[in-house]
Amino acid sequence: MVEMNSIATEQMPAQTANLLAAYADMYKNELIHNILPFWLNNSRDHVNGGYFTSLTREGKVFDTDKFMWLQGREVWCFSYMYANLQQNEEWLEMAKLGAEFMEKYGRDADGNWYFSLTAEGKPLVQPYNIFSDCFATMAFAALDKALPNDAYKKIAVDTFQNIIKRQHNWKGQYNKAYPGTRQLKNFSLPMILCNLSLELEHIIGTEQVNSFIPTVIHEVMDVFYEPNSGLILENVALDGSFSDTYEGRLINPGHTIEAMWFVMDLAKRDNNTALIHKAAAIMLNALEFGWDKEYGGIFYFLDIKGHPVQQLEWDQKLWWVHVEALVALAKAYTLTGEKIYAQWFTKVHEYTWSHFRDLEYGEWFGYLNRRGEVSLSLKGGKWKGCFHIPRSLYQVWNTVK
Amino acid sequence: MVEMNSIATEQMPAQTANLLAAYADMYKNELIHNILPFWLNNSRDHVNGGYFTSLTREGKVFDTDKFMWLQGREVWCFSYMYANLQQNEEWLEMAKLGAEFMEKYGRDADGNWYFSLTAEGKPLVQPYNIFSDCFATMAFAALDKALPNDAYKKIAVDTFQNIIKRQHNWKGQYNKAYPGTRQLKNFSLPMILCNLSLELEHIIGTEQVNSFIPTVIHEVMDVFYEPNSGLILENVALDGSFSDTYEGRLINPGHTIEAMWFVMDLAKRDNNTALIHKAAAIMLNALEFGWDKEYGGIFYFLDIKGHPVQQLEWDQKLWWVHVEALVALAKAYTLTGEKIYAQWFTKVHEYTWSHFRDLEYGEWFGYLNRRGEVSLSLKGGKWKGCFHIPRSLYQVWNTVK
Predict the structure, then answer these.
(1) pLDDT score for A341
(2) Strand order across the A123-125 sheet
(3) Fewest CB atoms within 10 Å of the CB: A150, A319, B132, B346?
């Protein structure tokens, strides 16, 4: 029933048996028979276009606001799955439903993407958050790959250029930091640019991507990397030095782990074995640092010096952290052949599949407390949508098969 | 040893025995022998003036940033205790240590209070948050009561007038809401103005306070009150109607409970028995709605329709919620004589004293998980300082004695 495109698989060193091959089918089946149908059935706005993403455990819409992060991510997801997994016309229609809504209502006069809109498309929250633009770029680049169209290309490229233009002061008037006292830079944007440049390669060309990647890799792997701990910091001083402040001490293990599979993708593209090993090792450091030895699962936030963090939700177990770890471990194992990554994959797989999956109503929970009990039963909200889980299921399947 | 000023006590109806009188001494002792010494011993910045408020469980400084909310609140606390509880010169010196730092470094050129400063007093975060100004007003008004001084009076009054001027658009450039699409107003500022006007009465005069109070009471008790549920909403549409959105559905039981004792204070001042009973009843509604029937304690955030909330920390048990409930229940019982409030006082007292107090290192924990286990062991941070606990201990003692 499922027709596969020809997809390049990750390169497993020839001498090693694939310890993770047995997982492939369950990841693909979960994607095709549980996750994608949940969003197809429950998130469509038949009246206005676009998607509802605030869905109860059962899949009912409990709030109709439309968050641009999640609109863009769902367009990306259905476009990507159409282009890479199966040319299912329903998926392409689903992607277009969101893209048309985004194109019509999503931007201000300067091309910045709003943070949220009403169900009808009226702007609610200003474009204070550049990640809305990042996910819009991904959305239109992926849709253009599924269904080539100059209008989609133009939106993707214009938005990408706008991100590059805004990258050093993207908060603009909404920046609350007093100028000059403590200038920090944040890991999120370099990290996402790693991934974004590859998504755009078919439009902007390999040459431009190649010219862009070394800086991004340097930022992520040198500037934000803290050599004493082997961890990546969320925020550093402008000169790259450690800032002994709430922001400077912050470790977000999931963020690091996700970034490291982006870096492994870039390193594989360059046949850079040393960089693959470095990224895999940093990923493992973050996972070991972030693993909850008492209850299992990966903490959301930690302080590198062990002090209390600002984030009250620091000890919660979030869906995206765990599914990104599965991708990173599958890639690290397949690219290096080192058993430690396969062992950790099995451990994280068991925690994740036994705690996050909702056997009763389908899809996965997003927010567990420290003990792994469901804390918020929503399937989608302001931040959880149709993105990390399907992307992870696809990536793991495509890596280990 | 402790010399008391003459303090007007709450009026207990003559026919009722005081069911809570037995609690008086333990509240006063906890305040004088545990809480105030902890802050006196651990929060002083001997070098720069002002206070460190990021303190570990043991009382050690783990971060040196100075948050204006907490600077103002600690000035208020030591000034208030000096003026109302005991003329302890160490307390007055402590209040002045913070006030001098605030006066010197705390404001921008327009008199707006920064959100945070470095240890040395350099501005870190812009004045995006008008509650910094509210706590600065309280600080200097209270210090002026302890140690009358025209400079303190002027800071308090100037800041208060600035709050009034900014009250309808206090976020200014930092407001992310797109103009006109969904105009909501928030409960926090009217609530705090209730309390603030009384703190300033000795400076601005009774006439001005009297002219100010009816509007504030109307806002809190009519506009934000939702009659079907008997609860108070955190956000309503500009015309006072219910907004079926994440913000509009939000219930913050602790916020309501705290506001209701402010209203009881205002009602008592006006001999308005009906308003006392109404405020006490709403407080009880919020407490019953917010009480965790499974693990005990009061939830932090809930959705009035039972939907998932945005706040990941919704089910945590916070110190301020519980100690404000103790004040509200003590006042409700003493002012109405109704046993239900004494019964709830005992229940909340038992939960609070058994879960939040740190018997090993003194002071109280701030952040417990749903089960009542310590989630963050800090004694002070960005939001918890020397304020709610000492104020509550004083208010309960002064109400039930």
Answers:
(1) 98
(2) A66-67, A116-117, A123-125
(3) A150
Decide if pLDDT at A67 tops 90.
Answer: yes
Inter-chain contact A308–B126, Cβ cutoff 8 Å? no
Q: How far is A252 from chain B (nearest CA, A)?
A: 16
Q: How many C-beta atoms lie closer than 10 Å to residue B126's C-beta?
A: 19
What's the pLDDT at B115?
98
CA A16 to chain centroid, in Å, comes to 29
When pLDDT is averaged across residues A286-307 and rounded to a whole number, the result is: 98
Q: What is the mean pLDDT of each run of 10 residues along chain B (401 residues)?
A: 39 68 97 98 98 98 98 98 98 98 98 98 96 97 98 97 91 93 90 85 91 89 95 96 98 97 94 98 98 98 98 98 98 97 98 98 98 98 98 98 95
Spacing of C-alpha A354 from chain mean position: 22
Q: Give the mean pLDDT of A373-397.
A: 98
pLDDT at B11: 53
Distance CA(B8)–CA(B93), nearest Å, equals: 26
Question: Based on the number of CB atoms within 10 Å of its own CB, is B193 exposed (0-12), middle (13-18) or buried (19 or more)?
Answer: buried
The three-state secondary structure class of A54 is strand
Q: Is B206 part of the contact surface with chain A (CB cutoff 8 Å)?
A: no
Of A130-139, A169-178, B340-349, which gets the smallest average pLDDT?
A169-178
- Residue B181 with chain A: CB contacts under 8 Å: 118, 122-124
Angle separating helix axes A388-400 and A319-336, nearest 10 degrees: 20
Q: Which of B72, B158, B81 is nearest to B115 (CA)?
A: B72
Give the largest CA-CA distance in chain A: 60
Q: What is the pLDDT of residue B93?
A: 98
b/e string for A127-163 if b means 16 or more Cβ within 10 A?
Answer: bbbbbbbbbbbbbbbbbbbbeeeeebbebbbbbbebb
The Cα–Cα gap between A40 and A42 comes to: 6
What does DSSP say about strands B61-63 and B184-186: parallel, antiparallel, or unpaired? unpaired
Quote the tokens at residue A302.
């930690």
**Residue B15: its pLDDT value, please?**
53
End-to-end CA gap in chain A: 18
Distance from C-alpha of A130 to C-alpha of A139, rounded to nearest angstrom:
14
Q: B368 forms bridges with which residues in the sheet? A: B317, B374
First to last CA, chain B: 18
Q: Do A126 and B178 touch (CB under 8 A)?
A: yes
If you measure CA to CA, which chain A residue comes closest to B384?
Answer: A310
Is the pLDDT score of A4 beyond 60?
Answer: no
Q: How many CB atoms lie within 10 A of CB B123?
A: 21
| B376–A313 CB contact, under 8 Å | no
- What pLDDT score was predicted for residue B393? 98
Two structure tokens written together for A125: 């929250």
DSSP letter string, B152-180: HHHHHHHHHHHHHHHTTSTTGGG--BPTT
- Torsions phi, psi of B378, nearest 5? -60, 150
Contact A310 B178 (CB under 8 A): no
**Whole-number average pLDDT of chain A:** 94
Q: Which residue has the tokens 């276009």?
A: A49
Q: Which residue has the tokens 């058994």?
A: B354
Q: Does the distance separating the beta carbons of B124 and A177 come in below 8 Å? A: yes
Mean pLDDT of chain B: 94
- Listing DSSP states for A321-378 in one string gives HHHHHHHHHHHHHHHH--HHHHHHHHHHHHHHHHHTB-TTTSSB--EE-TTS-EEE--
Give the Å distances, CA to CA, from B173 to A354, B123, B130, B227, B237.
46, 18, 13, 35, 21
Q: Which residues lie closer than 8 Å to B249 by C-beta, 6 or more apart? A: B243, B303, B304, B305, B307, B309
Instruction: Quote the pLDDT of residue A197.
Output: 84
Instruction: State residue B119's pLDDT score.
Output: 98
Contacts of B80 (CB under 8 A, 6+ apart): B142, B145, B146, B391, B394
